[in-house]
Every structure is written in C-alpha cells, then in structure tokens.
Amino acid sequence: MQSTDPADQEDGERASEAATGPRLRGRDREIDAAREALDAVSGGRGACVVVEGAAGVGKSRLLAELDRMARRSGFDVVSVRADELDQYAAGAALQAALQSSDGAHRALAATDDQRLWLLDGIADALEDRAQRAPVAVLVDDAQWADPATLFVLRTLPGRLASARILWALAVRSDTERPTVARVREDLERLGARWLTLGPLPQQELQHIAADILGAEPSPGLVRLLRGVAGNPGNPFLASELTRAFADTGVAGQETGEGSLLSDGIPVSFRRSVAARVDRLPVDAVHLLQIGSVLGREFDLVTAARMMGRRVGSLLSGVEAATNSGLLSADGPRLVFRHGLARQAVHDNLPPAVRTALHREAAETLRGTGARQAEVAWHVVMSGGPVDDEAVTTMTTAVRDMSSSAPEAAADLAQRVAGLLPVPDPRRLALLTDAAEYLGRTRRVHDALDLVDATLPVGLDPLQEARLRLVAAEIHQAAGDDDAAMTHLRTALDLPALPSDLRDRLLKTMATGHIYLGDITAAERTGPGLVEASYHSDEPSVVVSAMVFQAQTFFYRGHLDRALELAEGATRRAATQPAALYLRPPRIPALWLATVLTVTDRLADTERVLREGQREAEALGLGWSLPHWHVVRACALLEQGALDDAAVEAEAGLMIADELDITLPNPQARSMLALVETRRGDLAKARAHLQAARTGSGTSLQRYAPWLAVAGACLAEAEGESEQAAANLADTFMPHAPARLLALPPSLWPALVRIALRGGDRQLGRTVADALRGLTTETTSRQIAGAVNAHVEGLLHREPRALASAVTHYRATGRPAALAAACEDLGELEAATADTTSAIAHLEEAAHWASAVGAAHDQERIRRRLRRLGVRTAPVHTHRAGPQGWGDLTESERKLIPLVVEGLTNRAIADRLYVSVHTVNTHMKHIFAKLGINSRVELTRLAIERGVSTDSTG
Fold first, then answer.
1. DSSP H/E element including 139
2. What is the pLDDT of residue 662?
3. CB burial readout 780-791, b (16+ within 10 A) else e
4. What are phi and psi of 195, to 5 degrees?
C-alpha cells in the first residue's frame, strides 16, 4: 500500500496534479458534493464520502481531485492507496502513513489483541491533527486495503464524528470481500455521502478523446467509443482505446466486441492492450507479464530474478514498457498506470502459466525476505499444493494478522487449511487457530460451527482436547456456560493428556462453576490444583489462584478473607505484568473493585478502577475494557451517581461494539434499564431490558441476578407487583447468597421490598437469611449493619430497625440507599399516624432522590407527601432529544471548559483521570442535548455563555 506523507505538502500537490492527467469530465455533480463535504469539515463538522463504481470509471481520478481541492483549502491530507497484495498484510497502512509524517512510532502493545491499541493510536493522532487544521483521510482502492485499515475505517468515522475530519474512500462496486461489505454497511448507517460513479455519456467520452488527441476524434474512433459507452461509459477504457487508436489505427471492432467478459474487462480493451504489448520488444513483453503476476507495483530486482536475468540487461525492456504508457517508473518500484491494464496483461496469460508464475513468485519473494502478506497472496493465487516453507510462511502471516484483524486472520487460516490434506496436523492447528480468532469477534457461531465440523475428523486425544478447550473458552466468552462445561467434561475424559493441558481444562471448568453459581463444585474441581498453583514459578498462575480463592470466599459470604486475597493478588500483579492478561473478571484489580463495592471502602473503587483501567489501556487489553466500564458503572450506581453510571455502562457497550467483542455484557444493559426506571423513562428502560435479554443469549444463568432485578424494578414501576416478585423468585431462591452477592448492597433491600409487595414473604425471608450468613468483622461493618437493619425493618415492619438503617446509611456514602430507607421509614410511620416524623423522613427521601436524579422515585415520594398535605415542586424528568444547557450533568459541564481550551478527548481524559471512552460518551450526550454536531459549535456556545478555560461550566 502506498502512502502520501502529509508533511510534504508541495510534493504531494505536484504528485496529485501529475496523477490527474486530462481534465476531469462529466463529474460536476460529484465535484460539488466533494466541495460541500470539504466545506462542512472546514466549518467544524466531520464528514464521510464513499466513491463507488466499476474499475476504470474514475474513482481514483475523483479522489485525486479531492486531494487537490483539500490541499488548496488548507487541509492536512493523509492519503493511502491499497494494492491487491495488502489483503493479507498485518498492521494498518493508515497508521504507517500517520507515523511517517509525525516522525513518531508508538510502541507495539504487548498483547495478542492489538485492536484497541490500533484504534486509540490512530484516533489520538487524527484528533490531535484536527485541532491544528482540518484533516482529509483518503483511501484509494479500499476494496484491497489491509484488514486493520478496514477495521479503522469501519470504526473511527463514528467515534471522531465531531472532529474536523473528512473520510473519503474509493471502492469498487463489485467487490465480494466480506470485510469491505461491513465497512460499507457501517458507513451507510453512519450517514456517509455515497457518490456512485455511473457511465459517462457518449459526448463526454468524445471530449476525453479530444483532450488526449488535442483535436476532435475521427469517425472511426467515435464508433469505437460507442462500444465503450455500452461497457459502461468507462473513461479509463475510453482513454486507453483512444491512445491505442492513435498508435495503431485499430478501429475494426466488430459488433458485440465491446461486451463484458466474466471478469468485467471488455474484449475491446483486452485486445487493445494485447495489441500494444505485441508491438513491444520481447524483454518488455516478458517484463510486463512477470510484473502483472507480481502486482500493480513490483520490484525490478524481483522481476529480474524470476526472468533469470540481471537488472542491467532489462533496461531497454523497462524503457519500452514505460514508453508504451503501460508502466510508470517515477518511484522506487515499477507501477502499472492502472489496475485494469495490469489485469488485462495478467488475464491474457494462460491459466496454467499464471498459477505456476504465482507459485514461483511466492518462492522468490520468500527468498528475498519480502512481506509475509505478499508471499501469502501469491500462495493463495497459485491454488496449491503448498510446500513446507509456504505453509510456514502462511501460518506466520495468519498469526501476524490475528492481533489487529482476527476475523481476516481466521478467514486466511481456513483458506490455507483448505490447501492441505485432511490428515496433516498443521491443517488442524490452523483450523483451531481460526476458531480461536473468530471467537474474539462476534462471529461466535461461525467459530463453533468450525469446531463442530473439525471434531469428527479422526483427531487424536491431544488434538481433540485442545480443540475442545478452545470451544469451551469461546462458549464462556459468549456466556454459554453449560455448553462450555460439556466440552470440558468430554476433554477431561480423554486419555493420556499432558498435565499442563489437563490443568488448563480444570481451571476453565472451575471458572465455569463460579459463573454458574455452584461454588461447592468450583472448590472441588481438581483437588490440590490451588495449592499446586501457589508453588508455580509463573506469577500469573499464583495470581490466578489467589483471585479464584477470593471469588469462592466472596460468594460464600466471607468478605474479609475475599478482600484480603483480592488485595494481595492486585499487589502481586502490579509487579508482574503478565498477570494482567487473565480474562475478566479474573483480572485482579477488576475483581478487587467488585469486592470493594460490597464493603465500607466503596470510595476506594474509583482509585482501583482508574489505575487498573489505565494500565489495561496502555497494554492494549481491549477485550477487558467493557468489563472495567461495567464495574465502574456498578460502583457509581451504588454511590447514587445515576447519570455517570449510565455513561460508564454506555461506554462499555460502545467499546464492545467498536472492537467487535464477542458479547456485549448484558449487565451493562440491565444497569441502564435500572437507571432509566429510576429516572422515570420506562419506555427506554423496557428497550434496554429487552436488549439485555436478547444480548444475554444462553448466558441467562451468569447474568440472571441483574436481569431479574432490572425486570422486577421495571415491573413494579409499571404497577405489576406480583409479576415483579415472580421475576425474582426463580433467580434468588435456589442460589442465595451467591446470587445476592452478584448485586451491590443497595439493591438487596429492594429485593425484599418487591417480594413483600408481590405477596412472596418466603423470598424476603430467604434474602434475610442469606444476609445473616455474611461474615465480616471490619471491612463491611457499616454497610452490612445498614442493610441487615433495613431488611429486618421491612420484613417485620419495625420502625426502630429502619431508623437504625437510616443512621448507618448516612455513614456509607450511598445516598440512593439512604433515600430508600427514609422512604420506607416514612411510609411505615405514616401508616401508624406518626405524620410529623413521616413527613420529615419522606422529605429527606425526596431530597436524596432528587440529588441522585431518581425522578421516578422522587415523583412517588411527592405523591405520598401530598397525601399527607405537603405540597412540593414538580419533578424535573429526563427528556429525549435536544434539551438545553440546564440539562447538562455536572460531569458534562466539567468537560466544556477543556474543549474551549482546545484539548483533545484524550487530553481531557488524562486531565480528569477518566477513560477516553467515558469522555467520548459524555461528548455524545452534550451534542445531543444541545442539538449540535461539532466541537466548534460547542466552543462557540460556551463562549457566548461566558464559559472560560478556568470555568467549571
């Protein structure tokens, strides 16, 4: 892939002008649309343009014109052009183009999944440039772009929509590459401007011919151009046929010769290229033929080796080929002037010759140390069979690609496996890798189908066990714990497994038992495994054992011991980075924050999460980020920060979508449903709950507590008390206290309240018994005392117990729980005619409900106060669509002075010690509330309102 260094503006403009050739004809509408997009970006709003059409219809020419217009308008232009060989390239050409111009090279993330590192690095670089000048990102021949660049194009136009960036892609309309189709779908959903280049009319083709010839075309050429107009008005073909006509006088085209072949190239054009080639010296002919096999761009030294010649002996052939207009020698490599010309020369070779030359090209390139992507492309084009060295090269290409484009790596692995005989063990290894890579994306069903198709193929026990372990890990990542356990049990029954593989299977099974809430089974899995892990020389093994024990103690209700182990694991992991690569929720700091949320040290969760997530982002552990955001959302929900909790849950969903992660955590949707229920937007809560249930798929058991409590709270808000209680009974009756501890403490009394209102007193007693089973001496004394008193007060209608709960809650930093206890106490006092105290407690409940933004709770309390004769102000509720400055949250207001200061989202995140994805979500909310689309508009509004860089908003 070629890139244009944006720093060399003058050279880039000269190159752009040189590439344009004759005047651009018949594309005035498209030029106007491109100019509108440039104006929009200059005005501060992002834009995206997709130029689509058949080969040779003028996409590159239009993109070159857009390049010229952008540079003249003061844009910083980042330009890349893809080649067929880039389809199997690891890394992103777009990233390389940015680094070459900045002179900075970001260190590679030390992880097997570099998608986060890739996205954040490119996003930061582009956002930083857009602060200085509007940016145009131009990608030509995007249908051939490397998978990582396609991933960026699918993701960043949406993330950076408010930045001054124009994204412009040129892509063939007939491409069948699945990853390109996904780019199309996502950009269309984003609202990209589509410029479909259709055929030019006959008159415009005649103008093109006149531009080339410097005179009006002859009647014979006009007749020839009519054939082009039917195939279908292709300006490049018209230009080439005009040159061929001028050079050779070829005009004897018979009727029908302009019709398309199956590969999309007209017979007339193929014949015109063949005629031009036939007139060249034999060295030039062979050079063009070999070059057409090597690609649109090729190295003369490589071509000479394949021809068995020295470079010096080919100089006359190079000169003849360039003079013919088919090749260009302006850069370090020889280049066909158009992809169609290369394709015509390539397709004129007999099929047997083509495949043999591709096989030889692969061998030659491998010997010269060429890019793995180039060798891989030639191996695929040769169609097999493949030798050992070719298999090694292809396997390396697959693994190199997997870190930034796992989906494309999986597809290539399957293609390579298809070239190998069924008994070949390397075939199974490639298919196993392909399943693992697909399991990192949302193509989980494809991954599992691949496993199912591979398992019956006569595997030995070791091969089957490894494949079943991959299948189990994919099922666990997708939340299907039962299916994972089936694979694990089958694998463990296989004979003669090595101890390290058996240990991995047992550890994965123990984790599955925890997910399923069967703590006893988890502890009994692999007797002695935990003790043996503590004697391991690998730090990650020791840390993993500590986290596992912390989880079992936690779900048994031994909170002090769970916290001790979680803190020890986190300290040990801080000195051993390898331990951070454990999968969520087994990342030590992530699990520590989960435990802290249930203790009196709730305030410490922010520090733990901030430090842990920043470390995860720095290491590129993208797959863990949704979990960090969800745990932070849970902590904020417990602290009563509903708005910020919703932002973190949304950020988790957003990054899961960006990174195409296996399964967006249904817990995030469940929390959003809870937040919207408390805000009073029940329609939005229903939508989130439906999405949570749909997204949970087969993972109902793992996320059952969150789904149940969200559904119950919504049902109660809609007046369906019996249904609300029924939602809870099936989930919490069989698995207390493990299921109870999956939720933060402020929700525990809500379970009892809902159960009692729905007539299920037994469920209330079950929750109370589970709470009495918690053992804590120091870490959770305040919150445990508050919740126990709250639950006992609800069960036994005891005012003193509820008053004790209120007193305890005031010291825990949980205003939502305090509001609930005050309301419960006030309701009970009102029922006993103690109206003075009831009013005081209901007014305190209303105060705290208002403070946390729980409009639905506030409205319910307001009705109770009215029944007691107390008038209160109307409740302010959240509204959809544009609202106003007064609707901005405190966290949103903090961002605005930093935007005015000119900080990028990354810089704002660093200043506020939050994730950049949290900032992105806040910015999206600000734009929606104010009805604007860009940072420029926000800055203008802020200045009009007197917001300065030292203001708090």
1. strand 135-140
2. 59
3. bebbbbbbbbbb
4. -115, 100
Residue 713: in which H helix or E strand, if any? helix 700-717
Give CA torsion, residues 649, 654, 660, 661, to 10 deg: -10
Q: Are strands 135-140 and 327-328 parallel, antiparallel or unpaired?
A: unpaired
**What are the beta bridge partners of residue 193?**
49
Token pair 């925890």 in the structure block, residue: 514
Three-class secondary structure assignment of 232-260: CCCHHHHHHHHHHHHHHCCCCCCCCCCCE
Q: Which two structure tokens, joined as six digits, stand for 343?
A: 């394709």
**How does pLDDT run across 482-514, given as a tens digit for each residue?**
899 999 999 999 999 999 899 999 999 998 998
Q: Which residue is it, tokens 């060429």?
A: 370
CB atoms within 10 A of CB 281: 13
Q: Say if residue 698 is exposed, middle or buried (CB neighbours under 10 Å; 0-12, 13-18, 19+).
A: middle
Amino acid occupying residue 79: S
Contact partners, residue 794, CB within 8 Å, separation at least 6: 749, 752, 753, 756, 764, 802, 824
Structure tokens at 230: 């039917």
Ramachandran angles phi, psi of 139, nearest 5°:
-125, 110
Q: Give CA–CA dist 147/153, Å, rounded.
A: 10
Per the structure block, which two tokens stand in for 163?
Answer: 């930045």
List the structure tokens of 903.
Answer: 């900080």
pLDDT in tens, 262-307: 355 566 677 778 888 988 999 999 999 999 999 999 999 999 999 9
Which of 690, 763, 766 is CA-nearest to residue 728?
A: 763
- Alpha-carbon Rg for the chain in angstroms: 33
pLDDT at 4: 55
The rounded distance, in Å, linking the Cα atoms of 73 and 267 is 42
Per the CB < 8 A criterion, the answer to whether 51 and 30 are in contact is yes
Per-residue model confidence (pLDDT) at position 876: 65
CA distances to 82, 291, 373, 527, 597 from 3, in Å: 9, 21, 17, 58, 49
The number of residues in the chain equals 953
- Cβ neighbors of 566 (< 8 A, separation 6 or more) are 546, 547, 550, 554, 588, 591, 592, 595
Q: Which residue has the tokens 């890349």?
A: 80
Distance CA 686, CA 673 (A): 7
Count Cβ atoms within 10 A of the Cβ of residue 880 and give its class: 0-12 exposed, 13-18 middle, 19 or more buried. Answer: exposed
pTM of this structure: 0.82
Ramachandran bin of 90, using left for φ above 0, alpha for ψ from -120 to 50, beta for the remaining angles? beta
Report the SS3 class of residue 297: strand
- Which positions of the chain have pLDDT values less than 70? 1-22, 100-113, 227-232, 244, 246-268, 576-585, 662-664, 695-700, 734-737, 775-776, 875-883, 949-953
- Between CA 301 and CA 315 the distance in angstroms is 12
Distances in Å between the alpha carbon of 180 and those of 52, 154, 184, 654, 812? Answer: 12, 9, 6, 21, 52
Cis peptide before 406 (omega within 30 of 0): no
Contact 492, 506 (CB under 8 A): yes
- What's the CA gap between 65 and 47, in Å, rounded? 17
- How many helices (H) and strands (E) would you count in the chain? 47, 9
Residue 919 has a CB neighbour count (10 Å cut-off) of 26
- Rounded to a whole number of angstroms, the distance between the first and last alpha carbons of the chain is 46
Q: What does DSSP say about strands 297-298 and 334-336: parallel, antiparallel, or unpaired? A: antiparallel
Please give the helix or strand (H or E) that residue 390 lies within, else none: helix 388-402
How far is C-alpha 30 from the chain's CA centre?
31
3-class SS at 169?
Answer: strand
> Closest by alpha carbon to 388, among 419, 414, 364?
419
Burial of 412 (0-12, 13-18, 19+ CB in 10 A): buried
Beta-carbon contacts of 772 under 8 Å, excluding residues fewer than 6 positions away, are: 788
Residue type, 391: V
